[in-house]
Q: What sequence folds into this?
């Protein structure tokens, strides 16, 4: 059974795509903690991030770094917070969250409600700044 992230990668479920390559896919979290909250996932369906090979784990972090730089350039923030929790969806993923303070990283915070137009504009702004 494919995970929701595999369905997003396959285009079966729409997403606000930020970037992709042959191994990884980045898209906006639809329940964001802050504007620009992005998920980076491997195309390979792996439940636990540390079950990835060392090479794939390293490449995923490098890809996430490029995505983070694009988010930083598009969304005013002090840093891009990084979180790997891995309990909510059984598909490895990295959260990239634009933050002003550490409190912006609390997953117990209320999630933002954004319109599809806001999501699309945020995704476009980040895509426009993405570089490898």
A:
């Amino acid at each position: 059974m494919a995970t929701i992230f595999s369905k997003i990668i396959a285009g079966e479920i729409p997403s606000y795509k930020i970037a992709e390559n042959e191994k990884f896919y980045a898209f906006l979290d639809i329940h964001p903690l802050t504007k620009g909250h992005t998920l980076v996932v491997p195309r390979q369906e792996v439940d636990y991030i540390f079950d990835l090979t060392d090479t794939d784990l390293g490449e995923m972090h490098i890809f996430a770094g490029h995505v983070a730089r694009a988010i930083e350039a598009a969304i005013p923030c002090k840093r891009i917070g990084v979180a790997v929790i891995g309990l909510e969806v059984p598909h490895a993923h990295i959260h990239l969250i634009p933050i002003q303070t550490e409190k912006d990283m609390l997953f117990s915070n209320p999630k933002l409600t954004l319109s599809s137009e806001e999501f699309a504009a945020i995704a476009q702004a980040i895509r426009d700044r993405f570089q490898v």
Remarks:
- Residues 54-74 form the longest helix (21 residues).
- Helices lie at 4-9, 54-74, 116-129.
